[in-house]
Design a protein that fits this description.
The chain has 189 residues and is an alpha/beta fold. The protein has helices at residues 30-41, 54-61, 81-89, 110-117, 141-148, 155-162, 182-188, and strands at 2-6, 44-49, 67-71, 96-102, 122-125, 130-139, 166-169. It has a single domain (2-188), classed as Alpha-Beta Complex (Spore Coat Polysaccharide Biosynthesis Protein SpsA, Chain A), CATH 3.90.550. A hairpin with a 4-residue loop joins strand 5 and strand 6 (130-139). The longest helix has 12 residues, at 30-41. The N and C termini lie far apart (33 Å). Keywords: Cytoplasm, GTP-binding, Magnesium, Metal-binding, Molybdenum cofactor biosynthesis, Nucleotide-binding, Transferase. It holds the Pfam family NTP_transf_3.
Length: 189
């Protein structure tokens, strides 16, 4: 299983790069936190970066074994998480098993990721929301390319209808707070 850190978002609502952001109560930034969690479960971790943060993330992980930073691959550039997953899947000739974690979920525990890792083709669900960027799936780059050629970039649709992933229910919704706006961040500090 290969870990995937989704760190290429635009962070428009957040106001600064979420991957490089470090909360006052954290000893590392969000990208490092996600990588640290995934390396416990995965032999290799790929960090899907944007053109804005690829240099900083590459520098951050340059000396880290089995951690590689990648950017979106044409023709699917800057179209959300599916662009990042496409770039990751393009690295492999055969379908691969991926465990994904977006950087805007700093409270997600290794136990949550382990639960996802132990179920094939699944994503996280809490009583209040579905969390499609927290998923475990077998992905083939040709299948994803064919889907993206339809100009459909909805991760939710791809995961539920194309990949046929099933939700795994987690009761503690507080672990799944998506730190997407500065207001949420202030409550976390």
């Amino acid at each position: 299983m290969i870990g995937v850190v989704l760190a290429g978002g635009g962070s428009r609502r957040f106001g600064q790069d979420k991957a490089l952001y470090q909360f006052p109560n954290q000893s590392v930034n969000n990208a490092q936190l996600a990588v640290d969690k995934l390396t416990i479960l995965c032999d290799e971790v790929l960090v899907s970066a944007s053109s804005r943060n690829v240099d900083a993330l590459t520098e951050q992980f340059v000396h880290s074994a089995n951690i590689n930073v990648i950017v979106d691959q044409p023709p699917f550039v800057q179209n959300g998480p599916l662009s990042g997953l496409y770039a990751v899947a393009c690295r492999f000739d055969q379908p691969q098993d991926f465990l994904t974690l977006a950087v805007d979920y700093p409270l997600v525990s290794v136990d949550v990721l382990s639960t996802l890792a132990n179920h094939a083709n699944c994503y996280a669900r809490t009583p209040v929301a579905d969390h499609y960027t927290l998923a475990h799936m077998t992905l083939d780059h040709a299948q994803l390319r064919d889907f993206l050629l339809l100009d459909d970039y909805r991760l939710s649709y791809f995961i539920t209808e194309v990949q046929r992933c099933n939700p795994i229910a987690f009761a503690n919704a507080e672990l799944f707070i998506n730190y997407n706006t500065p207001e949420v961040t202030r409550h976390a500090d």
